[in-house]
Amino acid sequence: MLGLFLPLQTGGWSQSTLPRGTDWTFAYNLELTRRAEEWGFDIAFGLSQWLPMGGFGGETGYRENFLDPFVSAVALASATRSILLLGTVHVLYGPWHPLHLAKFLATADHISGGRFGANIVTGYAGNEPAMFGMTRPEHDKRYAMADEFAAICEDLWAGADNLTFHGEHWSLEEAYVSPRPAFGRPILVSASGSPAGFSYAAKHSDIVFVSSPAGEDFDTAIAAMPAHVRSVKDAARAEGREVRVVINPTIVTAPTRDAAEARYRAISDHADLESIRNFTGRHAGGDSRSWLEHSARGRAVGGHLHVVGSPADVADKLARLHESGIDGVQITFYDYVPELEFFGQEVLPLLEKAGLRVPREAP
Ligand SMILES: Cc1cc2nc3c(=O)[nH]c(=O)nc-3n(C[C@H](O)[C@H](O)[C@H](O)COP(=O)(O)O)c2cc1C
């Protein structure tokens, strides 16, 4: 599967000042999503973070502006035809109730003609729950809460009658959602790196976004990948389910390997160190283990994994990810519009030749 990680926020995923056209605006993301769809991409969605004034700051004002990814995904769904849109939502902030999400997703399913899902996240950052007047529940408890939340949504979508349920965290009296999703249960997605997260995903998720367990360097990461992917898939099989495992690489490619490596160095050399310090500080205050192995400097390029090289190198690395058990990539670029275009023209035909993508006409 090919996914595009939309830059709905200032600076996308890369904390670098090297000039580029990447933009958080809806118009820019609409153009990108339509173009990704024309290239045959399967998924588009964005990240959800709650940040104080100025985002992560620095020269780039990293993530200062941040469109809501759920609302954006619904709007993008109504302006596209075949690509799957995912709305990211922190289900534990608020008071969010499962009945809200069940209704919203059923509605998005109708708007999109069955091309909508939710990326359910539980929130690892320390300061985010405080913005909602809450204290962050302990890590594994969050997944127990999300488990009850998702199970209620599933019952609302599938149950034949009004739902009355009194759980540990949520209660419903005679609750019902109509219309039901037109095409069965909406796609459920989660992003995890821990046993509790994988066990939640095993019960509810169709797609699991994993992070690199060994940092952003490709060769180090790929060595650790088969065991990591297997642990997610085995957890799902123990529940009698299959999940697809997707990872987020930043791809830096150019006509030759030398040119791609030079570009990679240029992005890194323009690292926005102040915003990187603030980003690293936030992660130190969170309880996600996803970024522990990542270098601060690697944040200038961003993404969970760096895939750098000529189109042939990139196709080869994506093939190696596939061999390691990965089912798809959620791609981030530095300068989205031209780099998506170059990827479509130069890398996609190689993926088709390698049997990793179904051949299709270039748009
Ligand atoms: C591809 C990907 C996308 C993610 N998107 C979000 C997001 O939008 N918002 C968020 O708070 N966390 C997001 N996360 C973080 C995860 O929800 C999770 O907190 C993190 O991977 C740590 O895993 P754990 O909760 O199993 O420890 C994302 C992680 C990955 C790998």
From TrEMBL:
Signal peptide: none annotated. The keyword Oxidoreductase applies. It comes from the Bacteria. The keyword Oxidoreductase applies. InterPro entries: Luciferase-like_dom, Luciferase-like_sf, SsuD_RutA_monooxygenase. It holds the Pfam family Bac_luciferase. Residues 2-327 form the Luciferase-like domain. Keywords: Flavoprotein, FMN, Monooxygenase, Oxidoreductase. PANTHER family: ALKANESULFONATE MONOOXYGENASE, ALKANESULFONATE MONOOXYGENASE-RELATED. This is LLM class flavin-dependent oxidoreductase. It comes from Pseudonocardia xinjiangensis.
